[in-house]
Amino acid sequence: MRLPAAETLALSVESDVLHLTLNRPGRKNAMNGQMLDELTDVLRAVDGKTRAVVLRGAGGTFCAGADIKDMASGSGANPAATPEQRHVATARGNRRFGTVSSLTDALSQPVVGVVEGAAMGGGFGLVCVTDIALCHRDAKFGLPETGLGIVPAQIAPFVVERIGLTQARRLALTGARFDGVEAQRLGIVHEVYDDTAALDAALSDVLKRIRRCAPAANLATKRLIKRVGARDLEPILDEAAEVFATASLGDEGREGMLAFVEKRLPGWATED
After folding, report:
1. Which residue range forms the structural domain that includes residue 255?
2. What is the pTM of this model?
3. The domain spanning residue 43 has which CATH number?
């Protein structure tokens, strides 16, 4: 495949496998607008010669989710915009997370996630659209959005598909954080390892097994599996973007993101 130019991603093709690495280690690979655009371009460029896609993060961290500082500063927003215009811009920005998740979910090739460090919010959502997820036991997962006064809007449908409604409710409404062992118990990841060397060895073994499968048969199998209980997520994601915009531009969203930037508890939170 011809790799698009990317500054926030490290891309390489080894034999017939695309290694796609989120590469903003100084920000724990948090996703900003540029990364979302670059991910979209890369995912759309994956061609039939690619046997598998490996998704991981640089610097020992998978992905800390959305770049809250970028969101809080209103990156790309027009300060002279009306409230309605800000709502539209915020909804469109949020919808890009759903586009990346949908494109990853729809890839014909097996997608292998390798999770170390944080997999929070949008990072958690990315894990939920991988076909095979390998994890360090000390990785940290969670849906912290409601603690910031915002909504896990674009990832919620994919989390529900991965682990079911009951567990998704619990995690989303409490902001609970947990490690790789618990993530395996919940069905978010499939295999857990004690160190990076073991993770890399497991990845090599998974890719070897994928290469033993017929490419067309894998494509047809994945397509068939995805049809079971299939529903059109795009209208749900469109609605979710509107919900996100309302929440993030409201009092709770503004206070939550400001508190995050200022490293303090938001006004509604208590220690006990």
Report:
1. 9-195+211-262
2. 0.88
3. 3.90.226.10
